[in-house]
Amino acid sequence: MKVFCNGEAQDIAPGSRVIDCLNKLGLDPLSVVVECDGKILTREEYASHELQDGSVLELIRFVGGG
Amino acid sequence: MLLVNENEIPFQPGMTFADLLQAQGGDADILLVNGYPATVQTVLSDGDQCWLWKRGKTPAAEEMQHLLYARHTPGVQRLLQGKAVGIMGLGGLGSVVAIALARMGIGALLLADYDVVEPTNLNRQQYFVDQIGQKKTAALRDILQRVNPHVVVTVIDQRLVEDDIPVLFKDVHALVECFDDPAMKAAGLRAALQHLPGVFYVCASGLAGYGDNNAIRTRRLYPRVYLVGDEVSAAAPGEGLMAARVGIAAHHQANQVVRLLLGVENEAD
Asked: Which domain holds residue A30?
């Protein structure tokens, strides 16, 4: 199935969770804020939230330094 | 009416700074009108805010606060002194943001950090050699006191976790994320988006090294929420954190806070 990450279509396996998508994109889940279909997910929901075909993800990735 | 060193003086058409100097009987040699340098010949307009000061003279306490802001755009400081800003992390970003906001006349700062000043901080953070070993919260409070004693500074001397953030910062008008750790940067944004809907939030990502100045930008993520940085340059082996570029990002953050507090940004949606 297809999901959209920051506007780009990604093919992922049916039943995938948010964390699977982050892993596929090579993103460290700890340093990413995830909005899925308009809702900001809690850190715990990354592993539990199941993606649907056509889900829209906004991923805000942070890099270290301050 | 003119406002001369915060005192009202009747205005007469054609008045110059020379007239004010004569009336004062003083030897002022620093002249400002509406936040900008003037000369004795400068002709004044009704409603002008004027400052006369003798170079090098130490002001009395009650004069101090006005003089600190004599070069501001008039009216700005009166708005800022009613505002409180939280800063999470007092390193290269947070120490710079705090000092900038203090110089601009922010009313109150709520400063959070758990760490002490170390020699390896001094390449970019606003501390001094004689502060090594002190808590950053205490060291920065001392610096701010020397910069602007009118800012009310409150410190939180603990390592923040995601769940603490909405509780500790619920009463500030704006919150600035200045963490070093990317996991805490993400935690801070999640906390703000989920639990602090009434607070302006300005975070940072991507400011290491000495890359292009103009790759550092301020991007609106959500209503009230902004991200500063190039979003790419991570602190990493071979890519250090350096005073100038960290400072660019920090001043983006501080200016964005001021813009939000002054209502300049269009936050209608």
From this structure: 2-61
